[in-house]
Amino acid sequence: MSLFLEASQRHPKPENRKFSYGTAGFRMKADLLDSVVFRVGLLASLRSQKLQGKTIGVVITASHNVPEDNGVKLVDPMGEMLEASWEVHATSLANAPSDEQLLVEYENLISTLGVNTEITPKVVFARDTRESGPALVAALQDALAATKTDFVDHGLLTTPQLHYLVRCINTIDSEQPYGEPTEQGYYNKLASAYRKLMVGIPSNGEVTVDCANGVGAPKLRLLAETVGRDVFQCSIVNDSVDQPSKLNHQCGADFVKTQQRLPPGSHVASLARCASLDGDADRLVYYFNDSDGTFRLLDGDKIATLAASFIGDLTKAAGLRSLNIGVVQTAYANGSSTSYITKTLALPVVCTPTGVKHLHHAALKFDIGVYFEANGHGTVVFSNGALQDIAEYVPESPAQAAALENLKALVDLINQTVGDALSDLLLVEVILAHKRWGPKEWDGTYTDLPNRLVRVEVSDRTAFMTTDAERRLMEPVGVQEKIDALVGKYKQGRSFARASGTEDAVRVYSEAAERGEAEELARLVAEIVA
Ligand code: 16G
Ligand code: ZN
């Protein structure tokens, strides 16, 4: 085990730091991450051995955060987020105070988890465009070498591309191979599905895509080339990946969603479709400037409703009426979107706590589960039963046959492992083309209630305990009653407070029938919480 200790000594843990594997793995200032990434490498290797040598993924990214940050997270064999019960193991390895104690923790995990160390572990990894990426990759490789892990470095990839690769690798010899386990295989799969869906459908013209100066830019370019300009025209902006300080700066999906405005410097014609990705291309929002110049945001809720309505129509047209379709949202979903789904689309809605893993698992309970966070992260998952029905159904008319073919292509177009901005972009483009809709028609499906999100600094955010999918506070005692009393005074009022999982703060969300009221409600609830 001297190899282990020698390697660990090269990656000393910063003193007096407590790390925790949160909703998005470990994420912080990049200069604190070296030991954390090394130790995540150890865990990735153990996880692979525990799962009989299945390939585990590691992504080095801090998504929409500032360029100085970075992060690391693990991807499970089916391309899902790390199983929640292992998050504590990541946390305990990251916090072992010395190299020797790290070894003790590591050996402890081997025995308590029953890991067979004879099995050769396999890991694949990739990173985003941050300057700190290569050094962190070196720390990861050090851990993988020390544990004699077989690994493949996939260089720069979007987060969802790595999720795709992991699933492909682990299903290659199964009955349901997910796709060719290469980056080009990813483009080919999406492109061929997109082209099938666009047969006989007039193209909807160009979409302008802001890539947050991140990894999405070169990857979208490759995808667009593979799809072909005859059916997919996109103009790529904010693609300065060679200037790391520009990443997510005044652009990208998080900027557009939180600021509710165009990235400064973008010049778009009114009613032209625009979209923004985030720094690792797993979030997507659309927007446009209306004819009177007002900015209109088409966020994750609007993408979810668009996708759910299209898939609902398609399954009916294909004759697959028995498939149950549901939508999963979080408390941040605009109340208007929820009523639109339940009343107009007549589909069930489930609300889960924030964080992709919660939404994903809830979505798997439907035959076809559509899940999106309002911030633009989401996808559609098809159950095995649904996939089987779609594969085996014998259409009773040419119209059913055509719809069924489209449904099959849609299954391939959608990255079912995780929300994927590139796949979602093609999905939205296909649906708008099929519906012959511009952004205004899409926006017109329902009108968002005015809303406000504020960040409140508190002395101890862990004192804020929620229930009911984060919509109600259980602690501090008495606070929820005060919020309830306040909310009751506002027409269509709704508000909740929850501790952020990624920042040291409490977030307060509110909505109401009028803009001024939504803002006042947020301010007053923030005062209660502070
Ligand atoms: C993480 C989550 C994202 C969520 C956000 C909420 C994943 C991969 N990412 O970025 O889905 O919206 O946290 O942040 O699950 P908050 O807890 O600070 O509000
Ligand atoms: Zn992201």
Q: What topology does this entry show?
A:
Blueprint: H1 2-9, E1 26-29, H2 34-50, E2 55-60, E3 69-75, H3 87-95, H4 99-113, E4 122-127, H5 133-146, E5 150-156, H6 159-171, H7 183-197, E6 207-210, H8 216-227, E7 234-237, H9 252-259, E8 274-277, E9 284-289, E10 295-298, H10 300-318, E11 325-330, H11 335-344, E12 349-352, H12 356-363, E13 368-372, E14 378-382, H13 384-392, H14 398-413, H15 421-435, H16 439-443, E15 451-456, E16 465-467, E17 472-475, H17 479-487, E18 494-499, E19 506-511, H18 515-529
Helix pairs in contact: 1-4, 2-3, 2-4, 2-5, 3-4, 7-8, 7-14, 10-14, 10-15, 17-18
Bound molecules: 2-acetamido-2-deoxy-6-O-phosphono-alpha-D-glucopyranose and zinc ion.
Residues 23-24, 354-356, 373, 375, 377, 500-503, 507 line the site of 2-acetamido-2-deoxy-6-O-phosphono-alpha-D-glucopyranose (16G).
Structure description:
By secondary structure, this protein is α/β, with parallel strands linked by helices. It folds into four domains: 155 residues, Alpha-D-Glucose-1,6-Bisphosphate, Chain A, domain 3; 110 residues, Alpha-D-Glucose-1,6-Bisphosphate, subunit A, domain 3 (Alpha-D-Glucose-1,6-Bisphosphate, Chain A, domain 3); 129 residues, Alpha-D-Glucose-1,6-Bisphosphate, Chain A, domain 3, CATH 3.40.120.10; 79 residues, TATA-Binding Protein (2-Layer Sandwich), CATH 3.30.310.50. Helix 2 crosses helix 3 and helix 3 packs antiparallel against helix 4. It contains 18 helices and 19 strands. 41% of the residues lie in helices and 18% in strands. A hairpin with an 8-residue loop joins strand 2 and strand 3. The protein binds 2-acetamido-2-deoxy-6-O-phosphono-alpha-D-glucopyranose (16G) and zinc ion. The site of zinc ion (ZN) has 6 residues, from loops.
